[in-house]
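User: Show me a protein chain along with its predicted structure.
Assistant: Here is one chain, sequence first, then structure tokens.
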Amino acid sequence: MKDAEIDPESESTYECFDCGDLIVAETPPSQCPNCGGAIRNRQATVE
């Protein structure tokens, strides 16, 4: 299986661990703008 190429100049989708909201942004937010919770990039593998 080939790893997906991630373009750092394009928008990515981030997910809040606390409230589950999805945020689409070009740069990673430091925290969820809605609840202040921790977020993760949904394109990153969770292994």
